[in-house]
Amino acid sequence: MNLLTTRARTRAELAAGLESRGFDDDVATLVLDRLVEVGLLDDAAFAEQWVDSRHRHRGLGRRALSQELRRKGVDSETAGEAVAGLDADAEREKASELVRRRLPSLDRVEPQAAARRLVGMLARKGYGAGLAYDVVRTEMAERGAELDDAEPDLEDEEPVAGPRP
């Protein structure tokens, strides 16, 4: 119960907590089943809440959110349903907001290099390449920056390792 007082948890997180405290697997299963039965443990509700919170506050995209949920022990189907609930317009708006916030610090950088950095930032936050290119191109055009017709070359960027903690 102490694990549930700070924030919602997944079944896998609670199972790991019980195991680390030396509880027998049969006892842990009974306890977890009872928590599900009374509504204190719900991986689907956790996933929806996680997606909403991490998208709104950290600006994470679908791919990064799916990875985080899988690391938390949420099954792929439940994670997929939660991420599918993320509105495409809301995802695009959050990506645009992230780019607009970062753009002023790149005023003195050559536009193609700035575009590579911005696309890389969005990729690390879990946004798809097509969305990232489009958002960066749109936001930079609104600031008067001219980009080549080709998509930014990302070979000079760091490898994408997922969102930063």
TrEMBL record:
Compartment annotation: Cytoplasm
All residue ranges annotated as the RecX first three-helical domain in the record: 1-35
Domain RecX second three-helical: 42-82
Alphabetically ordered keywords of this record: Cytoplasm
Disordered: annotated segments: 143-165
Domain of life: Bacteria
Domain RecX third three-helical: 91-136
Compositional bias ranges of the Acidic residues kind: 147-159
Cross-referenced HAMAP family: RecX
Record-stated family: Belongs to the RecX family.
Function: Modulates RecA activity.
Protein name from the UniProt record: Regulatory protein RecX
UniProt organism field: Actinomycetospora endophytica
Gene: recX
